Amino acid sequence: MTSIRSVATGSHPAADEEQERMDPERAQGDAARTDAARTDTADDTAGEDTGGHADAGGQADAPESTPPLRLWGGRFAGGPAEALARLSVSVQFDWRLAPYDLLASRSHARVLHRAGLLDDAELTAMLGALDDLSDAVAHGRFRPTIEDEDVHTALERGLLERLGALGGKLRAGRSRNDQVATDLRLYLRDHARQVAARVTELSTALVGLAEQHVETPAPGMTHLQHAQPISFGHQLLAHVHAFARDTDRLRDWDRRASVSALGAGALAGSSLPLDPAGVAAELGFDRAFANSLDAVSDRDFAAEFLFIAALIGVHLSRLGEEIVLWTTREFGWVELDDAFATGSSIMPQKKNPDVAELARGKSGRLIGALTGLLTTLKGLPLAYDRDLQEDKEPVFDAVDTLLVVLPAVTGMVATMRVRRERLAAAAPDGFALATDVAEYLVRNGVAFREAHEAVGQLVAWCVAHDADMDEVSEDDLAVINPLLTADVRSVLSVRGALEARSAPGGTAPARVREQIEALGPVLDRDRAWAGS
């Protein structure tokens, strides 16, 4: 049985990296395609297995005597207008689906053989040609030309070049509609695991840093104002729990995405004796589609993946924002390693937290990908509509963005130096121990409402007299509020405040160590699922 994991082991680099794009002259009319989607392949394709020839400038083109291969031309008297061709071409971005399309084609060939539509010799030849084409794609010897409409057209051309008329038999019983739905699921299930692996690496780096700072006091903040002292390790672990939920979402998403659409055809299924369940199992899916119309229309899996990607982006943004603050002179809690900071073109003294800022900025891009796809989907009738061509670029961009940002943030976290003394000195600032005084009074029988009022009066007195709470005399305490006896000074200790927060999940060092221990199996599970 062939698994989607076999596609990502390195034999098909096109599945893991952003692919070379088509010639810019072919795509320049499509304003929706980004500049990144129009990188040149002219020089690179000269002399390659493209089925065309290279002109003096190295530009690969289809043979002049052969019209461009199309999968739908029989009903039409002529080819499409150039404006339509430029608008509809998608191979410049969907070529990265090639290894997944080839994987599905192997399974489809075996199904056709079991159905009696390919004899033994034809199956052997078909699988051999698909293997050869797959190797050529993986090593860049076969690439799309400027005449190929999409990844399916390009690969069929490659198969016809190798098999002649026999190559055309593979189209029996399938449509580009069920092909692309299956290809995209294969791609995303593969890359969801890659994203999960990178998220888990970041979580591991955060846990490693938290282990070093279980007992390092730090200012805990709400509204970005000093609130209560906490363990710095506790704060770092809060980010880990958020990222652990992200990987949990990816695993849960995979359960719903593990549905093969092959066999659904254009929308109504096939009259040929195909085996959708067998193909699904062979490709590593949990099940085949239950409704052919839904199978080719459904992009829930893409939208849901983009939601998870956007939420990962939000969590990265929050971590990035905190690190940006921590590295300022005003905070001064963290020093970034030179390898993960940049300078200024005019100000020699600057050391800028660009990784953290870019992580924060990329979240908008990820959120935009989600809202863009949802907007595309909101008005579509069943079944397949050409609007669905627009599902791929936001998905691919989200994958690319996360696979670039996550390792950079991991490196930044793993190498940054925490200034313990600075954190400890700031921990009691802003009357951060006021809640401890109020809770001391509660433990001595005072209603919390009265305790809150008394400590509020103490803070107001300290502000008016530019004093800290531990500097207030016994006489002044009695004047401020009779409930404030000299004994309240016993809780004015940062260390004591940390130890006192000993309820499960709290910031007491013992509880922080429990969190670290509990997260170990969680991260092990995530690594195992991601295959890392």
Annotation, overall tally of beta strands: 8
The CATH architecture designation of the largest domain is Up-down Bundle
Q: How many separate structural domains?
A: 3
CATH superfamily of the largest domain: Fumarase/aspartase (Central domain)
* Average pLDDT, all residues: 89
Radius of gyration: 30 Å
The class by helix and strand makeup works out as mainly alpha
- For this structure, the CATH topology of the largest domain is Fumarase C, Chain A, domain 2
Global shape: elongated
- Kindly estimate the percentage of residues that lie in beta strands according to DSSP: under 5%
- What does the main sheet amount to? 2 strands, antiparallel
How many angstroms separate the termini?
21 Å
CATH class category label of the largest domain: Mainly Alpha
Question: What is the number of helical segments per DSSP (H or I, 4+ residues)?
Answer: 20
Side-by-side strand order of the widest sheet: 1-2
> What ranges have pLDDT less than 50 throughout 5 or more consecutive residues?
1-6, 8-48, 50-65
- The proportion of residues forming helix, as a percent range, comes to 40-55%
SSE topology string: HHEEHHHHHHEEHEHEHHEHHEHHHHHH
